[in-house]
Structure formats: C-alpha cells, structure tokens
Amino acid sequence: MENQNISDTLNLIVTLQKNACCSDNNCPEGCTRPFLGPANNLICYNTRPVSLFTCCTGTNWEFPYEINGTTGTSTVFRVENVEGNCATFRVLIPNTVDEETTYTLSNSYFTIDLSCVLAMQCLPDIYAI
Predict the structure, then answer these.
(1) 71, exposed or middle or buried, with CB in 10 Å at 0-12, 13-18, 19+?
(2) DSSP classification of residue 99
(3) What is the pLDDT of residue 127?
(4) Which domain holds residue 71?
C-alpha cells in the first residue's frame, strides 16, 4: 500500500533542501514548515533530518555508516530523492558535544519502499556538512 502522506512530505523536504536559504518569516513548526531553520535568525540550514519507524514493530529504522575507519549506526537521515513510493536517504552521523547534537553527512545511502514506513519524525533543521 502506498504511503502518500509521507511521500508528499518527503517531496516537500527535498524541495526545501534544494532551495535552502535564510528567512525571517514567522512560520509554523513541523514537517511542512515552508523553510529550513527557525524563524528570525541569520543562520542558513540545508537539511531537515528525519527518523523513520517500521510498520512491523514501530521501532526506528537504523542503518550503518563508516567514516574515517569508524563504523556505527544511526536512526537519523537526510532525504535525497523521492520516486513514486520509494525514497533514497543519506545516513547522518550524530556528533554530541556538551549535550548538543549536530550531524555530519555520511557517504552511506539506502532506498526504502515507503509502504514499509509506519511513521516519520522530523527533527530540528540543521546545517549538515
């Protein structure tokens, strides 16, 4: 079964990421906010990170990454492309310093059939490098 709501939201996020720019408009919070980043600041964001939950168990999807010889897994991703009911994601590597988490783009990608996704959670917008 096609998960049209998640597909539509992911398409919106891809568009926002491709057209990332600064904005000082007051906009609503959530996955469909029309720009990346919080309102009223001069910081530009280029990624709206998401977490995905499985249909079978409702747990987070988790995918591996490797960077500079270090391996790990992450439950946070950047959507790169949506085609029909499939989406390609890049694994984001969490970096926690002084209780603040930032993310680094990995070179690990995966494509998933969105009918296998029960739900999606959007995290605060970031500038991923």
Answers:
(1) exposed
(2) T
(3) 84
(4) 4-122
Q: Is residue 128 part of a domain?
A: no
Interatomic CA distance for residues 89 and 74, integer angstroms = 12
Nearest to 76 by CA among 57, 61, 97: 61
| Residue 127 resides in a domain | no
Position 1 scores a pLDDT of 43
As a whole number of angstroms, the distance between CA 38 and CA 45 comes to: 9
Report if residue 53 sits inside a domain.
yes
Look at residue 105 and tell me if it is in a domain.
yes
**Based on the structure, what is the number of domains in the chain?**
1
The whole-angstrom separation of Cα 16 and Cα 124 is 14
Average pLDDT of adjacent 10-residue blocks, the chain of 129 residues = 80 87 51 63 79 94 92 97 96 86 92 95 89
Predicted local distance difference test score (pLDDT) of residue 29:
57
